[in-house]
Amino acid sequence: xxxxxxxxxxxxxxxxxxxxxxxxxxxxxxxxxxxxxxxxxxxxxxxxxxxxxxxxxxxxxxxxxxxxxxxxxxxxxxxxxxxxxxxxxxxxxxxxx
Length: 97
Fold this sequence. Notes:
Elements: H1 2-18, H2 30-58, H3 71-85
């Protein structure tokens, strides 16, 4: 999902740089189709992140079969995904500067 979102954003930027994007407000243009797809994928990504946060919160109540749930790693994935999709210019923890 995150790779799909990243690919869409990359394509939008490439089309803007090349000047072939068209008008976002006109249906059927390249820009309109890309923006519509970006909004759709972004919405799905936000829903997925909320589900992941909920799963992480309920992990403490799960029966431990086969070992402990890796909550720290799971929350790290949620944090990195949130940072990647946010418009802020932050460097996620654990990434080289």
